[in-house]
Amino acid sequence: MDAHNTAADDGDNELISTLLLLPTRVFESLVSYPIRLSIMNSLINGPLTVTDIASRLRLAKGVVHRHLKILEKMGWVTVASDEIVRILNLSREANRVYYMLSSLIYFGYDVNFDGCEIQLKINSKYVAFADSRKGVLIVKTPTATYGCVKSCGNGVECINWALKVSRKFRIQVNVPNININVDDALTQLFHGILVKNFTSPKAKLPLIRIVDLKIDNVYRQWLGNPIRVNSNGSGQH
């Protein structure tokens, strides 16, 4: 299941269609709470209810619900639409609410102000990538990497995973020898994905969802919809 169609099948060369930009601070908030990482991982293979997640993680429903709402507010997860529930043939018994990942790839951003100019700086050192085939969520910050593909002493599995994904998206990841630092390989991969989607003439990246906690909440309150910004800089409602 890939509700967002963010990654193409192995035989296809389509680019990722949607990126989700989150403030860099919410990456730190995510990795500071292991329970939130666990909840995100539980949603990799499809939408789940609070009860489903609580059962899988063996946690109280109240605890799961509280952290889910925080993750939703930060932009990491969203409530599955009626259309997705219908397509996946999920049970609507007792008006069940299903949560799902907001995207399969997230990048962090910072905002710089220079006079009348506002610069949005995408920081590829803050990234999260959900691989539904492997069932892993890799979250990278400048200080740490979470969710290694497989626990191993030298990171070989992580590097092999990065190389496989790079071939999928036709991105160059330089691995001069097997002892390359895992973080270096992942940084090359995610930076390459970002650059290719902005520069390729084939880029089908019309939609970049930008989430800012304060602005987005105000916009939702008064106008009812989040701001959607496409890659040529024009805003859409």
Which descriptors apply to this entry?
single chain, 237 residues, alpha+beta, Arc Repressor Mutant, subunit A, 8-stranded mixed beta sheet, two-stranded antiparallel ribbon, globular, disordered C terminus
Describe it for me?
The chain is built from 8 helices and 10 strands. Helix content is 37%, strand content 22%. It has a domain of 164 residues: Orthogonal Bundle (Arc Repressor Mutant, subunit A). Strand 4 and strand 5 form a beta hairpin. The protein starts with 17 loop residues before the first strand and ends with a strand. Helix 6 packs parallel to helix 7. The chain is of the alpha+beta class and 237 residues long. The N terminus and C terminus are likely disordered. The protein has an 8-stranded mixed β-sheet. The protein has a two-stranded antiparallel sheet with strand order 2-3.
Examine the coordinates and then state which fold CATH places here, giving the name of the CATH topology of the domain at 18-148 and 204-236.
Answer: Arc Repressor Mutant, subunit A
CATH architecture tag of the domain at 18-148 and 204-236: Orthogonal Bundle
Rough shape?
globular
Strand fraction equals: 15-25%
Number of beta strands: 10
Instruction: Please give the order of strands in the largest beta sheet.
Output: 7-6-5-4-1-8-9-10
Largest beta sheet, briefly?
8 strands, mixed
The CATH class designation of the domain at 18-148 and 204-236 is: Mainly Alpha
Secondary-structure element string: EHHHHEHEEEEEHHEHEE
Classified in CATH, the superfamily of the domain at 18-148 and 204-236 is Winged helix-like DNA-binding domain superfamily/Winged helix DNA-binding domain
Low-confidence stretches: 1-17, 215-237
Radius of gyration over all CA atoms, rounded: 18 Å
Whole-number mean pLDDT: 74
Helix content: 25-40%
- N-end to C-end Cα span: 28 Å
Structural class, by secondary structure, is alpha+beta
Query: How many helical stretches?
Result: 8
